[in-house]
Amino acid sequence: MNNIIISAKNIQKTYKEGNQRITVLNNVNIEIEKGSRVIITGPSGSGKSTLLHILGTLLSPDSGEVFIKDENIFKLPENRRAEIRKRHIGFVFQYHYLFSEFTALQNVMVPLILSGKKEKEARNKAILLLELLGIKDRKDHRPNELSGGEAQRVQLARALANEPDILFLDEPTGNLDHKRAMSLMEMLLKLNKEMGTTLCMVSHNRELVRFFNYHYAIKDGQLENEY
Ligand SMILES: Nc1ncnc2c1ncn2[C@@H]1O[C@H](COP(=O)(O)OP(=O)(O)OP(=O)(O)O)[C@@H](O)[C@H]1O
Ligand SMILES: [Mg+2]
User: Fold this and answer.
1) Within a domain: residue 117?
2) Which of 14, 23, 39, 46 maximizes ligand 1 atoms within 8 Å of its Cβ, making it the mutation to test the pocket?
């Protein structure tokens, strides 16, 4: 009956720096259907990353509630929240966030090992993912030996390792040229259609909205439903 996988109610977030306070999110509400593709757009500094981190359970709001699969996320102890994250959520960060001492392959293996896979199985699956994303030949490189676009694809491979129900993407095409950006979007579309992965992406690039079935824009700390 309930087809809503993420629901956020009255989200409020203010950053304080010295005497300054900036309210980034002011009473944000959103419901995301299972299996849907949602994009949230807005100019730089409008609060896209802040909102995505809150929806993705990584940052707590000052007030308001986030439900994922009917769990009231920020009411849970951190270990339960981490468990939900590990089981259901994949996150591709805006600024690449790979383990710098590990190779691309090892980075993708980490979540597999943490979820209990044997090393050999983790390695094989990680190689498959890197192959799928067209970067298998970069597997033994460390993050500082990868281009921005390659590093972002390693992040995506890592985010997909545990086959998340929900994939959060923060400006994932930011470091890609047009052709690679389009091929990444096609890949995400395929993932959504074939695996039913719910996509929630933020971007300043309105050219990408055609790949999504729901579009919201952040304006003055609030979400406006575009369609
Ligand atoms: N940890 C923080 N402490 C203080 N201010 C912050 C913090 N994080 C973000 N901000 C401020 O909050 C506002 C929203 O930031 P956010 O990163 O969510 O924007 P954004 O829409 O993702 O921008 P961009 O498109 O440039 O990535 C900005 O004015 C930013 O400077
Ligand atoms: Mg951002």
Assistant:
1) no
2) 46
